[in-house]
Amino acid sequence: MWHQYKIHLAPRCRGFHLITNDLLRQIPELSEIKVGMMNVFLQHTSASLTINENADPSVRTDFESFFNRTVPENESYYTHTYEGPDDMPAHLKGSLLGFSLNIPITDGRLNLGTWQGIYLCEHRDHGGSRTLIVTLNGE
């Protein structure tokens, strides 16, 4: 069985945002799948997706601090600068983290670890709404 959804997320400020529950609310057919996979694909290049700690919000703050230090703004070697100082670093951060996730489905639920959640990583100061394509496959 295959299901596919286009999910629009409201604009979020720059940072790392848990979106697990936002996704689950919009994919009711998940509960019908005994064994399968869910692919989540982000249709943008200045944000990204990852899975990590879902309980302690300080993890999200530390992620933002780490990536801002690792990929700083206003570097003299950037040539793609016409969309603002946060744009090229956002593309680099997106490529480092990635735009797609595959998550196993077991007995109608995502088979994430106890402390795992799905993050939208917004790398722009004002990134706007984001669109995800979620594809379920299973039996």
Write the layout of secondary structure elements.
Elements: E1 2-9, E2 13-18, H1 20-25, E3 35-42, E4 47-53, H2 58-70, H3 87-97, E5 100-106, E6 109-110, E7 116-126, E8 130-138
Antiparallel strand pairs: 1-8, 2-7, 3-5, 3-8, 4-7, 5-6
Query: Runs with pLDDT <50, length 5+?
Result: none
Question: What does the average pLDDT come to?
Answer: 97
Question: Could you name the CATH homologous superfamily?
Answer: YjbQ-like
What structural class should be given to the helix and strand makeup?
A: alpha+beta
Characteristic key phrases:
YjbQ family protein, YjbQ-like_sf, elongated, UPF0047_YjbQ-like, single chain, Jelly Rolls, alpha+beta, 139 residues
Give a structural overview.
By secondary structure, this protein is α+β, with helices and mostly antiparallel strands. It has one domain (2-72, 81-138): Jelly Rolls. Helices cover 22% and strands 42% of the residues. The strands form two sheets. Strands 1-8-3-5-6 form a five-stranded antiparallel beta sheet, with no helix packed on it. The radius of gyration is 16 Å and the shape is elongated. 24% of the residues are buried. The mean pLDDT is 97.
